[in-house]
Design brief:
globular, Peptidase_S9_cat, Methylamine Dehydrogenase, Chain H
């Protein structure tokens, strides 16, 4: 799947950073490491639920969403993989985690799930602590991201040994579990993150990559501080008064003896084992090889907006696939005999559909096995089935198997069997076009047992609507819990702006074009205006009681809408806010980036720009109640907006959550955010009485 383009907003590191999970350690620990309470605690192993658990029949509450058992990363991507399939295809290994707001901690477990024969899952070890990730961009590393850092899991070539990482506030560890002896042992410990993990081809050594020179870079910064730091692009003033280490600290490949843990020479053949993508053709998003048959998915032409297409080579002979089904391919697998190619693609409005195909190249056209709005990701070939993580709008993450014969799905693991008894609101997929003809989609969630004929207050949650409708991007707005309290909730999937002319050749040029005349932001606002109008015409919502919420790019959408429309009567922001002072406090590196895509370079040149882009500078913005729930690493960016709007009489309040990154991770904080958002929206929008049990 092609990478999501970066949006022009000050704190847009979550979208780009989800696949990079580097933790800050040592002297520069200024981001969330899950908090003092957990840092002092021992690891706590999760329990697996009884697979026959029958939950209580009632509406969904915020605590039900908070305490869901999760595995894999926070997003719906393929990296890092949400599970690891053994070479003999008998087991899937995954890291399970569950939040506990009462103790502000997580339990973890490393789980083995038999893939065949209907076996039950079992736990082989705890999986360390849940540690906040950081990101590397803008020339520096250790940027506070805050998403949970998942374990890396790797099977040895014969499937007897399982290697996995554990994270702690002061170190990362590599462990090995022996499936025959049923014993786990620690192989090594490192003061920096393990960023890649694999086995050598002979299965005798563990291969891993880390930035082992990062502690020395941090020590050098501490020493530099004795004579004062020169202010430059290394600073990230939002979260620290010290420079960050350079992104140039190299990622170093290393090798360990799998028995003794002693360092071994890293051989040339190890590079491909540890970093398989080095063999992929340029710009590829998927790759598969079986003997002399190679398949990959890559843009056919240059340009950032060029869709990827399936390409095949049989020996030295190229074999094109010209059907529409061969575009948007994001995963590929050859059958064991190398005759059939199976592939996964995204299509539909906003890539809202996931499809699977089987194709015998040279003999027929691809045959569709499955088409669904469910999110299926991290998929791996298992002979007669493809194993995937799956989320549906009303179903949390599952592990499923998809038949390569007919696309039928088989449940392997439901980490939350009790959730099925809860009564969700009804979900309806909406598709529409805005005033410029740009297609958009979203999911409308109505209260359980909603009776047509009365209008509901509407809460808009942003900015992706694929998979389980939990709390929007950043998970701060509990969709089903809000529906149970009498709200209509629209999970809005941000439409992708596309240039009408002058195809951009790179990301920077794309962003410059999207900023010209605020074309991208106006497209999004037009899409929101159109869907609100549609729901009003259907008699479902009260257009005078509409709230918008947002984190990261969604927060910029919200403030732009408040500055340039009167659609909304209340707003909640998880990050705040675009303004001239926000550029100043974000540091030189981020400032340079935004100037490069069209933001004003000086105060004198910026007044016309900020009158449109900034809520605090908008001349005609209508005061509405505004709640800001900000992370300690970002709240300073909202201080100018908070001060100015409060002095002008806006009903505004702001809460700051300590020890948090761009995405908030502390269970206690997340529970408080859920509860405050629900209560605040009830006070502002006055919904109907809550559904019993909600």
């Amino acid at each position: 799947m092609p990478a999501t383009r970066q949006r022009p907003h000050f704190v847009a590191i979550a979208e780009r950073g989800l696949s990079r999970n580097w933790r800050s350690t040592g002297a520069l620990v200024f981001l969330s490491l899950l908090g003092i309470a957990q840092a002092r605690a021992e690891t706590r192993q999760c329990r697996l639920p009884d697979l026959h658990t029958v939950g209580e029949e009632r509406a969904i509450g915020a605590n039900d969403l908070m305490r869901l058992r999760d595995f894999g990363g926070l997003g719906l991507g393929n990296a890092p993989a949400p599970f690891a399939l053994s070479p003999d295809r008998r087991f899937a290994a995954l890291q399970l985690r569950q939040a506990d707001p009462a103790t502000d901690s997580y339990c973890t477990a490393l789980v083995l799930m038999p893939v065949r024969g209907g076996g039950k899952p079992y736990i082989i070890d705890d999986a360390g602590m849940i540690i906040a990730s950081t990101s590397t961009r803008y020339g520096v590393t250790d940027l506070p991201l805050g998403t949970p850092k998942p374990a890396l899991i790797a099977w040895n070539p014969v499937g007897r040994l399982l290697a996995y990482t554990k994270s702690f506030p002061d170190r990362s560890e590599i462990w090995i579990h022996d499936l025959v002896g049923f014993k786990s042992r620690r192989l090594s410990s490192s003061p920096v993150d393990v960023e890649a993990l694999s086995w050598s081809d002979d299965g005798e050594r563990l291969l891993y990559a880390s930035r082992r020179d990062l502690p020395a870079a941090r020590d050098a910064i501490m020493a530099e501080g004795r004579s004062g730091f020169r202010y430059d692009g290394r600073f990230w003033p939002l979260s620290s008064d010290m420079p960050l280490p350079s992104a140039d600290v190299p990622l170093i490949d290393q090798s360990l003896d799998a028995i003794t843990g002693q360092t071994q020479p890293f051989r040339p053949s190890d590079k491909l084992a540890l970093h398989p993508a080095v063999q992929w053709p340029s710009a590829s998003v998927a790759f598969a090889q079986r003997g002399s048959r190679t398949a990959w998915s890559a843009p056919a032409d240059e340009g950032i907006d060029t869709p990827s297409r399936l390409q095949i080579r049989m020996g030295n002979k190229p074999l094109p696939c010209r059907t529409a089904s061969c575009s948007g391919v994001n995963s590929l697998w050859w059958s064991d005999d190398g005759r059939t190619l199976y592939f996964q693609r995204r299509t539909g409005v906003g890539n809202s559909l996931t499809e699977f195909f089987a194709w015998v190249p040279g003999r027929n056209v691809p045959r569709r096995l499955l088409s669904t709005t469910d999110a299926l990701f991290g998929c791996q070939y298992a002979g007669d089935e493809i194993i995937c993580a799956q989320e549906a709008s009303n179903t949390p993450r599952l592990l499923v198997a998809i038949s390569i014969r007919d696309g039928a799905r088989r449940l392997l693991l439901d980490p939350n069997p009790e959730y099925a008894a809860l009564e969700p609101g009804t979900v309806r997929r909406l598709e529409w076009r805005n005033d410029a003809g740009v297609a958009a989609f979203g999911d409308l969630v109505l209260p359980p047992r909603y009776t047509p004929g009365h209008r509901l207050p509407l809460v808009i949650v942003q900015y992706q609507s694929r998979g389980f409708l939990r709390g929007g991007t950043g998970d701060e707005y509990p969709i089903q819990a809000l529906a149970a309290r009498g709200f209509a909730v629209l999970s809005f999937n941000r439409p992708q702006w596309r240039p009408a002319t002058d195809e951009p050749l790179n990301e920077k040029e794309y962003l410059r074009q999207s900023m010209h005349g605020f074309a991208d932001r106006r497209d999004v606002l037009s899409s929101l205006r159109q869907v609100i109008r549609q729901l009003d015409l259907e008699g479902l919502i009260d257009p005078l009681r509409v709230a918008i919420t947002g984190q990261s790019d969604g927060a910029v959408t919200a403030t732009f809408a408040l500055a340039n429309s009167t659609l909304f009567s209340a707003a909640i922001l998880s990050t705040c806010c675009e303004s001239e002072s926000g550029l100043e406090i974000s540091g030189e590196a981020l400032d340079n980036f935004y100037i490069g895509i069209g933001y004003p370079a000086t105060r004198a040149s910026g007044k016309p720009f900020w009158r449109v882009a900034s809520l605090v500078d908008a001349p005609d913005a209508r005061p509405v109640p505004l709640l800001i729930q900000a992370a300690s690493s970002e709240f300073r960016m909202g201080l100018a907006t908070y001060r100015d709007l409060r002095r002008r009489g806006w009903p505004i309040e702001m809460y700051i959550y300590p020890d948090e990154g761009h995405v908030k991770l502390h269970p206690a904080h997340r529970a408080a955010i859920y509860d405050r958002n629900i209560q605040w929206l009830e006070e502002q929008l006055n919904p109907l009485p809550a559904t019993p049990g909600g």
